[in-house]
Fold this sequence. Notes:
Blueprint (H helix, E strand, L loop, with lengths): L8 H5 L9 H7 L7 E3 L8 E11 L2 H27 L6 H15 L4 H30 L20 E4 L5 E4 L3 E6 L2 E8 L2 H9 L2 E10 L4 E11 L10 E7 L3 E7 L4 E5 L1 H19 L3 H29 L4 E6 L18 H8 L6 H14 L3 E5 L25 E3 L6 E3 H23 L11 H12 L20
Parallel strand pairs: 9-12, 12-13
Antiparallel strand pairs: 1-2, 2-6, 2-8, 3-7, 4-5, 5-6, 7-8, 9-10, 10-11, 14-15
The structure holds zinc ion.
Amino acid sequence: MIAPHIESISAAFDRGAVHSLNEQDLLRSGCFSDSRVILVREFSETMNQLITAKLKLNLTAEQKLAVRDTALAYRDALNYTAMVAFDSSKSSNGTKLQKLVYNHLRSEFRLGAQMACNVPRQVAATFKSLATKLKQNNEAIKKGHTKKRFKGLDKAPKYASRTVTLNYQRDYTFKFDQQVSIGTLNGRIVVHYEGWNKHLESIQTCSNIGAAKIVYQRSSKIYYLMVSLEIELLDINPTNITRISGIDVGMRYLAVETDLNNKSAFYSGKAYRHKANQYQKARRSLQRKDTRSAKRRLIALSGRERRFIADVNHQISKKIAKPNSLIGLENLTGIRDRTKSKSGNSASKKQRRANRNKAKWSFAELHGYIDYKANLAGSLATKVLAHYTSQSCPKCGHTSKANRPNKGLMFRCECCGHELHADLIGARNIAMRTLLVRQDWTSTGSLSVSPDVSRNETKADILQSFSELRWSVDTSPHHIGTPIDDG
Length: 487
Ligand SMILES: [Zn+2]
């Protein structure tokens, strides 16, 4: 049997964007500082997934000092090399840089041969991404999109965090009994590590272990080892899929999940929303103060807030990524912030104040985690068009804003009178659209998860096929389970 060509949702919808992500971007965006895991994915024909396992290093006091010395030396070496690169016309040529700094890095910073090669490579990558940003900024200024000038290349970039890049089998190797051997300036140390079970397993079975990074979390004073692993995914074909589900996201319920067997789950956002709003409030008040300590506290606060959201997203995605499923998510790109209420001139002063204190939730991150965990569970996530998912009647197909009187909790179809909890409507419509994807997959052998919606007619065709979808009566009981929390 020919394995169907499968593209991941992220690959399909954010093609390019995903591939350009590198560890630097991830570090900057804070993905690495979440509690367990984040992925960088790259898709090839053989359906491999690049993941990053975050391992907590259990260092003794002495080992901690050795790692600290190494990390600080590495950081100083990065900063030194950045100065050199800046002075030689902001070069992003790694080979050239290496020639300029290698000996100095070995003698002055006492770095090993491998590390002395990694440093110029990393600096070159930084300069390359800064140059790209400068170029984009110049274009944006030319087009009149912005007046702000990009200042990232005005002086040499400064590396502030303690980090070391390690090559597998040269700078670090895995040993038995959850131990890893790491090269430091003072010789090798053997350290016990902890991590997420799935990752510990992957380390044992993975045939392609890549480079790792030592990362220091200042708030907890803990060193982590971020290891990149290339994992071969199980071949998924339509016959493995026995369950279709649809996921709707929003602020009242961070996620509503329903499958075609009519099992639903509501992941309430109430408690989280409250906490996220508190973070937002605290952040705003710190932003108003222009002191050094306020800035420092702001950075710490932002980190905590990001980790909090990531942690909740992890918990929810873990439950949603059930095995043998095709999981439908909405394609949110091109849709403006759906949690935003009235804004601009039409909003009252009071409304604007309320908006200001409303936290934003990272639904893109939630989608990413679901996609990632689905893959590990032998399932697949796909994206479907999000248009009218909250306005279409799943029973008769009638689509109208008036189906949701006063934007209330109840959906009531104008046409057939079908009534349902409003938050369940979106998830059901998504589940049905996902069923279409599945049927298409079975009949054509290829999973088209990226319908070409650049042309309006295609989009109209797709929406037309959506409008013919109906939630079957057999699966739709008269009594819908009450949501666990009305938010
Ligand atoms: Zn209806």
